[in-house]
Design goal:
There is one protein chain. By secondary structure, this protein is α/β, with parallel strands linked by helices. The protein has one domain: Metallo-beta-lactamase, Chain A (4-Layer Sandwich). It is built from six helices and 18 strands. Helix 5 crosses helix 6. It is globular.
Protein backbone atom coordinates (compact mmCIF):
# COMPACT_ATOMS: atom_id res chain seq x y z
CA UNK A 1 0.00 0.00 0.00
CA UNK A 2 1.31 3.42 -0.96
CA UNK A 3 0.00 6.61 0.65
CA UNK A 4 1.20 10.08 -0.41
CA UNK A 5 0.41 13.31 1.38
CA UNK A 6 -0.61 15.72 -1.37
CA UNK A 7 -0.84 18.74 0.93
CA UNK A 8 -0.74 19.68 4.59
CA UNK A 9 0.43 22.58 6.73
CA UNK A 10 4.19 22.09 6.80
CA UNK A 11 6.99 22.18 4.24
CA UNK A 12 8.08 18.76 3.08
CA UNK A 13 9.23 17.52 -0.30
CA UNK A 14 10.96 20.12 -2.45
CA UNK A 15 8.61 21.77 -4.93
CA UNK A 16 5.43 20.90 -2.99
CA UNK A 17 3.12 23.66 -1.82
CA UNK A 18 2.19 23.52 1.86
CA UNK A 19 -0.98 25.10 3.22
CA UNK A 20 -3.57 24.68 5.97
CA UNK A 21 -5.50 21.65 4.79
CA UNK A 22 -5.15 17.97 4.06
CA UNK A 23 -5.22 15.49 1.19
CA UNK A 24 -3.93 11.92 0.79
CA UNK A 25 -3.49 9.89 -2.39
CA UNK A 26 -3.75 6.13 -1.78
CA UNK A 27 -2.76 3.13 -3.90
CA UNK A 28 -4.21 -0.14 -2.61
CA UNK A 29 -3.63 -2.98 -5.04
CA UNK A 30 -5.10 -1.81 -8.32
CA UNK A 31 -7.39 0.72 -6.62
CA UNK A 32 -6.51 4.39 -6.31
CA UNK A 33 -8.23 6.74 -3.87
CA UNK A 34 -8.15 10.31 -2.64
CA UNK A 35 -8.99 11.13 0.95
CA UNK A 36 -9.82 14.83 1.06
CA UNK A 37 -8.64 17.37 -1.50
CA UNK A 38 -7.09 20.11 0.61
CA UNK A 39 -8.01 23.80 0.65
CA UNK A 40 -7.64 24.67 -3.05
CA UNK A 41 -6.29 23.68 -6.46
CA UNK A 42 -2.82 23.63 -4.85
CA UNK A 43 -3.57 19.97 -4.14
CA UNK A 44 -3.81 19.27 -7.87
CA UNK A 45 -0.59 21.20 -8.51
CA UNK A 46 1.23 19.09 -5.94
CA UNK A 47 -0.13 15.87 -7.47
CA UNK A 48 1.28 16.94 -10.84
CA UNK A 49 4.60 17.88 -9.24
CA UNK A 50 4.76 14.44 -7.58
CA UNK A 51 3.95 12.62 -10.83
CA UNK A 52 0.56 11.38 -9.60
CA UNK A 53 -2.08 11.00 -12.30
CA UNK A 54 -5.42 11.93 -10.74
CA UNK A 55 -7.30 10.64 -13.81
CA UNK A 56 -6.72 7.13 -12.46
CA UNK A 57 -8.47 7.79 -9.12
CA UNK A 58 -11.41 5.42 -8.50
CA UNK A 59 -13.03 7.22 -5.55
CA UNK A 60 -12.74 10.37 -3.45
CA UNK A 61 -13.57 10.35 0.26
CA UNK A 62 -14.40 13.64 1.99
CA UNK A 63 -13.64 13.04 5.68
CA UNK A 64 -15.90 15.82 7.01
CA UNK A 65 -17.62 19.06 6.07
CA UNK A 66 -14.84 21.67 6.38
CA UNK A 67 -13.36 23.91 3.69
CA UNK A 68 -9.71 22.96 4.24
CA UNK A 69 -10.46 19.38 3.23
CA UNK A 70 -12.89 20.14 0.42
CA UNK A 71 -11.54 23.26 -1.33
CA UNK A 72 -9.87 21.20 -4.05
CA UNK A 73 -13.02 19.28 -5.02
CA UNK A 74 -14.46 21.80 -7.49
CA UNK A 75 -11.04 22.35 -9.17
CA UNK A 76 -10.76 18.55 -9.38
CA UNK A 77 -14.12 18.37 -11.17
CA UNK A 78 -13.28 21.38 -13.37
CA UNK A 79 -10.13 19.55 -14.47
CA UNK A 80 -12.33 16.82 -15.95
CA UNK A 81 -11.95 14.16 -13.25
CA UNK A 82 -15.16 12.39 -12.33
CA UNK A 83 -14.60 9.73 -9.65
CA UNK A 84 -17.43 9.16 -7.19
CA UNK A 85 -17.18 11.38 -4.09
CA UNK A 86 -18.27 9.84 -0.78
CA UNK A 87 -19.35 12.13 2.05
CA UNK A 88 -21.73 11.98 4.96
CA UNK A 89 -24.99 13.73 4.08
CA UNK A 90 -24.48 16.03 7.07
CA UNK A 91 -21.15 17.25 5.65
CA UNK A 92 -23.17 19.64 3.50
CA UNK A 93 -24.62 21.51 6.48
CA UNK A 94 -23.39 24.85 7.90
CA UNK A 95 -20.29 24.79 10.12
CA UNK A 96 -18.52 27.67 11.87
CA UNK A 97 -15.52 28.46 14.04
CA UNK A 98 -15.77 30.78 17.02
CA UNK A 99 -12.69 33.02 16.73
CA UNK A 100 -13.40 34.76 20.02
CA UNK A 101 -14.71 38.15 21.10
CA UNK A 102 -11.57 39.92 19.83
CA UNK A 103 -12.63 39.08 16.25
CA UNK A 104 -15.60 41.46 16.58
CA UNK A 105 -18.29 41.15 13.93
CA UNK A 106 -16.29 38.40 12.21
CA UNK A 107 -16.18 36.26 15.35
CA UNK A 108 -18.23 33.41 13.86
CA UNK A 109 -16.41 32.32 10.71
CA UNK A 110 -17.97 29.96 8.16
CA UNK A 111 -15.75 26.91 7.68
CA UNK A 112 -18.14 24.62 5.82
CA UNK A 113 -17.83 23.29 2.28
CA UNK A 114 -18.80 25.10 -0.91
CA UNK A 115 -22.51 24.24 -1.32
CA UNK A 116 -22.01 23.55 -5.02
CA UNK A 117 -20.24 20.34 -4.05
CA UNK A 118 -23.52 18.93 -2.69
CA UNK A 119 -25.14 19.17 -6.13
CA UNK A 120 -22.42 17.37 -8.08
CA UNK A 121 -23.83 14.27 -9.82
CA UNK A 122 -20.91 12.09 -8.67
CA UNK A 123 -21.45 12.85 -4.98
CA UNK A 124 -22.64 9.90 -2.90
CA UNK A 125 -24.32 11.16 0.29
CA UNK A 126 -24.10 8.62 3.10
CA UNK A 127 -25.98 8.17 6.35
CA UNK A 128 -23.51 6.33 8.53
CA UNK A 129 -21.22 3.38 7.81
CA UNK A 130 -20.69 2.25 4.22
CA UNK A 131 -18.61 -0.36 2.39
CA UNK A 132 -17.33 1.04 -0.91
CA UNK A 133 -16.03 -2.42 -1.79
CA UNK A 134 -14.25 -5.29 -0.10
CA UNK A 135 -11.32 -3.88 1.86
CA UNK A 136 -12.41 -0.24 1.50
CA UNK A 137 -14.92 0.84 4.15
CA UNK A 138 -16.16 3.96 5.88
CA UNK A 139 -17.31 4.05 9.48
CA UNK A 140 -18.63 6.64 11.90
CA UNK A 141 -18.45 7.19 15.66
CA UNK A 142 -21.85 6.40 17.17
CA UNK A 143 -21.02 7.30 20.79
CA UNK A 144 -17.95 9.10 22.09
CA UNK A 145 -16.19 7.32 24.94
CA UNK A 146 -13.94 10.29 25.84
CA UNK A 147 -14.47 14.03 26.16
CA UNK A 148 -13.87 16.15 23.10
CA UNK A 149 -10.31 17.53 23.00
CA UNK A 150 -10.27 21.15 24.15
CA UNK A 151 -9.45 22.43 20.65
CA UNK A 152 -12.75 21.17 19.21
CA UNK A 153 -14.99 23.05 21.61
CA UNK A 154 -14.87 26.28 19.56
CA UNK A 155 -16.31 24.55 16.49
CA UNK A 156 -20.00 25.11 15.85
CA UNK A 157 -22.85 24.07 13.60
CA UNK A 158 -26.12 25.75 12.73
CA UNK A 159 -29.20 23.97 14.08
CA UNK A 160 -32.67 25.49 13.71
CA UNK A 161 -31.10 28.85 12.95
CA UNK A 162 -28.89 28.88 16.06
CA UNK A 163 -25.17 28.22 16.43
CA UNK A 164 -24.52 25.28 18.76
CA UNK A 165 -21.50 23.11 19.46
CA UNK A 166 -20.70 20.79 16.56
CA UNK A 167 -21.59 17.13 17.21
CA UNK A 168 -19.28 15.98 14.36
CA UNK A 169 -21.81 13.53 12.96
CA UNK A 170 -20.60 14.72 9.54
CA UNK A 171 -17.25 12.96 10.08
CA UNK A 172 -16.36 9.48 8.87
CA UNK A 173 -13.20 7.41 8.69
CA UNK A 174 -11.61 5.21 6.05
CA UNK A 175 -10.56 1.63 6.81
CA UNK A 176 -8.29 -0.12 4.32
CA UNK A 177 -7.71 -3.86 4.60
CA UNK A 178 -4.96 -5.68 2.73
CA UNK A 179 -4.39 -9.25 3.84
CA UNK A 180 -4.09 -9.15 7.62
CA UNK A 181 -3.10 -5.46 7.71
CA UNK A 182 -5.68 -2.81 8.58
CA UNK A 183 -5.13 0.91 8.16
CA UNK A 184 -7.40 3.55 9.71
CA UNK A 185 -7.38 6.99 8.08
CA UNK A 186 -9.04 10.18 9.28
CA UNK A 187 -9.06 13.86 8.48
CA UNK A 188 -9.03 15.85 11.74
CA UNK A 189 -10.29 13.28 14.26
CA UNK A 190 -12.78 15.87 15.51
CA UNK A 191 -14.62 13.21 17.50
CA UNK A 192 -11.36 12.71 19.41
CA UNK A 193 -8.76 10.14 18.40
CA UNK A 194 -9.36 8.12 21.58
CA UNK A 195 -13.10 7.81 20.91
CA UNK A 196 -12.35 6.92 17.28
CA UNK A 197 -9.99 4.16 18.37
CA UNK A 198 -12.64 2.77 20.73
CA UNK A 199 -15.27 2.90 17.95
CA UNK A 200 -12.87 1.08 15.62
CA UNK A 201 -12.26 -1.68 18.17
CA UNK A 202 -15.97 -2.05 18.79
CA UNK A 203 -16.63 -2.50 15.07
CA UNK A 204 -13.59 -4.57 14.05
CA UNK A 205 -12.68 -6.39 17.25
CA UNK A 206 -9.07 -5.23 17.56
CA UNK A 207 -6.86 -2.18 17.07
CA UNK A 208 -5.69 -1.12 13.59
CA UNK A 209 -2.08 -1.74 12.63
CA UNK A 210 -1.62 1.82 11.36
CA UNK A 211 -3.48 5.10 11.93
CA UNK A 212 -3.01 8.12 9.65
CA UNK A 213 -4.86 11.26 10.74
CA UNK A 214 -4.69 14.76 12.09
CA UNK A 215 -5.55 14.90 15.81
CA UNK A 216 -6.85 18.49 15.94
CA UNK A 217 -4.72 19.65 18.86
CA UNK A 218 -3.27 22.78 17.22
CA UNK A 219 -3.70 26.09 19.03
CA UNK A 220 -2.71 29.60 17.92
CA UNK A 221 -2.09 30.82 21.46
CA UNK A 222 0.25 29.22 24.04
CA UNK A 223 -0.97 26.02 25.69
CA UNK A 224 -2.01 26.20 29.31
CA UNK A 225 -0.61 23.61 31.71
CA UNK A 226 -3.91 21.72 31.80
CA UNK A 227 -3.96 21.58 27.99
CA UNK A 228 -0.42 20.22 27.85
CA UNK A 229 -1.45 17.57 30.35
CA UNK A 230 -4.45 16.66 28.19
CA UNK A 231 -2.20 16.21 25.15
CA UNK A 232 0.19 14.07 27.20
CA UNK A 233 -2.72 11.97 28.50
CA UNK A 234 -3.94 11.36 24.94
CA UNK A 235 -0.42 10.33 23.92
CA UNK A 236 -0.09 7.95 26.86
CA UNK A 237 -3.36 6.23 26.01
CA UNK A 238 -2.45 5.95 22.32
CA UNK A 239 0.92 4.53 23.31
CA UNK A 240 -0.86 1.55 24.85
CA UNK A 241 -2.06 0.43 21.42
CA UNK A 242 -0.04 -1.99 19.22
CA UNK A 243 -0.39 0.64 16.50
CA UNK A 244 1.91 3.01 14.61
CA UNK A 245 0.44 6.52 14.30
CA UNK A 246 1.17 8.96 11.47
CA UNK A 247 -0.10 12.48 12.01
CA UNK A 248 -0.04 15.90 10.36
CA UNK A 249 -2.10 19.03 9.61
CA UNK A 250 -4.26 20.03 12.59
CA UNK A 251 -2.19 18.20 15.20
CA UNK A 252 0.31 21.05 15.04
CA UNK A 253 4.06 20.73 15.47
CA UNK A 254 4.05 21.83 19.11
CA UNK A 255 1.46 19.24 20.12
CA UNK A 256 3.30 16.67 18.01
CA UNK A 257 6.52 17.33 19.95
CA UNK A 258 4.67 16.90 23.25
CA UNK A 259 3.19 13.59 22.07
CA UNK A 260 6.45 12.41 20.51
CA UNK A 261 8.17 12.70 23.89
CA UNK A 262 5.67 10.15 25.19
CA UNK A 263 5.26 7.88 22.14
CA UNK A 264 8.72 7.85 20.57
CA UNK A 265 8.94 5.81 17.36
CA UNK A 266 5.21 5.00 17.48
CA UNK A 267 4.39 8.55 16.32
CA UNK A 268 5.57 9.94 12.96
CA UNK A 269 4.85 13.32 11.33
CA UNK A 270 3.90 13.41 7.64
CA UNK A 271 4.80 16.62 5.79
CA UNK A 272 3.50 17.92 2.46
CA UNK A 273 4.69 15.55 -0.28
CA UNK A 274 5.82 12.79 2.09
CA UNK A 275 5.16 9.16 1.18
CA UNK A 276 4.21 6.19 3.38
CA UNK A 277 4.80 2.63 2.15
CA UNK A 278 3.02 -0.12 4.08
Amino acid sequence: MRIVNLIENTEGKAGCIFAHGLSFYIEKGDRKLLMDLGPSDDTLKNAESLGIDLKSVDAVILSHGHYDHSGGILPYIDAGFNADIYMQRLAGEDYYADDGADAGEERFRYIGIDKRICDLPQVRKLDGDFAIEDGIELFTVKNRTHSLPFTNKRLLMKAEGELVRDDFKHEHFLVLTEGEKRVLMGGCAHNGILSIMDAYREKYGKAPDVVISGFHLMKKTPYREDQIKEIEDIARELNEYPTVFYTCHCTGLEAFDIMKAVMGDKLIYVHSGDEIIL
